[in-house]
Amino acid sequence: xxxPVAIIAAGLSIPALAGLQRSSPVITxxxxxxxxxxxxxxxxxxxxxxxxxxxxxxxxxxxxxxxxTFGTSVTHRMFNCAHLPGSGCGTVVESFVAIAxxxxxxxxxxxxxxxxxxxxxxNARWSVSVRVR
Length: 133
What we know:
The chain is 3% helix and 45% strand. By secondary structure, the protein is mostly beta strands. Residues 1-23 have low confidence and may be disordered.
């Protein structure tokens, strides 16, 4: 489920949005790799934060001209899981801003689902279509 989150400029908690200077609230939506949403709708100026559930994921630049990457991709290594080399334990987070009306697709891919474990076709790719009004 896509969850809208209103973030006040003084309390920004998303790393890629931390340097944003605004006098009004920023509307941010979050989606993650466990969700298989066919599409998301945003208004110009709204943000979308994508969180992938493994450090093996690589988030691609959005297709089309409706979205722009905001900041850089941030990898969070988890400290509360097994510290096994090659486990991919953590998340990859990237933020996007809706800049123009139209449709963009955000895609992510990975070739490994764990140490020496190739992903099946169903687990190797993820995407969401984003319509901006």
